[in-house]
Specification:
Strand content: under 5%
CATH superfamily of the largest domain: UbiA prenyltransferase
Order of helices and strands: HHHHHHHHHHHHHHH
Number of helices: 15
CATH class of the largest domain: Mainly Alpha
Number of strands: 0
Oligomer: single chain
Radius of gyration: 20 Å
Length: about 300
Amino acid sequence: MTAYLRAMRLGRWPRSLAIFVGSASFFLLNKQYFDLKNFPDLLYRAVLAFLLTWAISTANYIINEIVDVPYDKHHPQKQYRPLVTGLIQKAPLLISAVLISAASLILAYIHFHNRVFLLSLASLLLAGFFYNVKPFRTKDIPFLDSISESANNPIRFFIGWFAFCPSAIYPPFSLLICWWAFGNYLMAAKRVSEFRFLKDKAGDYRQSLKKYTRTSLILNMAVTAFIFFIMYSVFALDYKLQSFFCLLPLVLFYFYLIARKTFRERQVMEEPERLLYHFKFSLYTLLLVAAFFLSFLFDKIGQ
């Protein structure tokens, strides 16, 4: 049973916290919906939205675990995954993915009377399918691999936004692109790390790395960072968020820290969230979160 739980990658739950960027953005731009009198209901929605997102993500990881067996054999750490080593069978894993997905969508339909929320949750499942499964398997196509994997960021943003929002109000396009770009920057950094350390085996593990070069990977990071800061500035200008401009140097330094870790790390950066295992990096992340929380409290939209 322990091996099956390992294959579900339940430890990846921090990625589902990304939905709260969408929730926070909704309340920042629509403060009239934030009422402390309804705090129990808000908390219930937040926790349930997180659990449903985590469940759908778990189903996606199970599918990834199954279809990536031939490739994981070429990775120094992933070659020891339970399915690769033969500790578990595919069928029970696949059945659990189907049951988890179905239960999550049913619960979303029952508890969130919001069609867009349900569609967003289903889109997260569908995005994982297109990313992992042939004949689509976008993870094997250079640039499209990181672009499509990063699409999970705006999808999670939608989930967090529509957990509280009436269907008629949609988030700003600039903010969605901004959040996607941050995800793509992390995914490009992950591929740079794999390219550095796996060397000749890189293409056997990740097919897209056969067609990448070190230059093209670094260019991917640079262009994505540029898109992020352009969209960040457009959003701040549109809503006259002065605090966002004050925080711009801190965000820029955050991008620098990620790049520095990517090029100096002594082992493969298997998952970007592992950066948070470094005390100084996690401390700076908390500082940024706190700074944006203060913006939420004190900044006035359009003034």
